[in-house]
Amino acid sequence: MAAPLERYKFTVDDYSRMAEAGVLQQDARVELIDGEIVMMTPIGLRHSACADRVNRQLVALYSDTAIVRVQNPIVLSEYSEPQPDFAVLRPRADFYASGHPRPADLLLAIEVADSSIGYDRGTKLPLYGRSGIADVWIVDLVRDVVDAYRQPFEGGYAERRTYRRGQRLPLPALAAELAVDDILP
Asked: 173 falls in which pLDDT band (50, 70, 90)?
């Protein structure tokens, strides 16, 4: 009887050392998810336009009260370092130069999804829920809506609300809202 194959799970430290040693190219579009290095999908035109719109809105709203991080790592566990499209972070004087943000630092994580919708919903969203990220948005460019997830638990989120054009998205931790029309391209 053949023994089952075991997979090696990379830690965040392993992943960082691979990048420092040049095993992973600096501009490689990869992220560490549950110990596996995952290739990220290429960014298309609609995704880029939407990300630019979201960035403009978030920076205008929070330039003095939060840090808006764009497609940069956040450490969720010993084995996961995803790169959400946006992470709105608690302010810190060093702008996280001493270490990537952790779950307690995140006020909001946003994924912009077109071809990656299945991965963002099926893999990253449960990961964010397990990590206790209180507020997550998936900007669904396929359906032309924004799904807001709140009340994290081990398997995901207890609350999901869909916002359409003409509606406003509340940001509970930040006491503000954004118009869906200002986000969708």
From this structure: confident
Phi/psi of residue 65, nearest 5 degrees: -120, -10
Q: Tokens for 141?
A: 């460019």
For the question of whether the overall pTM of this predicted structure is more than 0.90, the answer is yes
The SS3 call for residue 66 is coil
**Do the strands 106-113 and 86-89 form a parallel or antiparallel pair, or are they unpaired?**
antiparallel
In the chain, the DSSP E strands lie at: 30-33, 36-39, 67-70, 86-89, 106-113, 135-140, 145-153, 156-163, 168-171, 176-179
Summarised one tens digit per residue, pLDDT across range 121-172 is 999 999 999 999 999 999 999 999 999 999 999 879 999 999 999 999 998 7
Helix residue ranges per DSSP H, 8-116: 12-20, 45-62
Q: How far apart are CA 152 and CA 171, in angstroms?
A: 15
Long-range residue pairs from 16-25, CB within 8 A, at least 24 positions apart, any chain: none
Looking at 42-174, list the stretches that DSSP marks H as alpha helix, in order from N- to C-terminal side. Answer: 45-62, 117-119, 125-131
- With a cut of 70, say whether residue 26 has pLDDT above it: yes
Compute CA distances 54 → 3, 60, 97, 169, whole Å: 49, 10, 24, 12
Tokens of 111: 């994924």
Contacting residues for 14 by C-beta, under 8 A, at least 6 apart: none
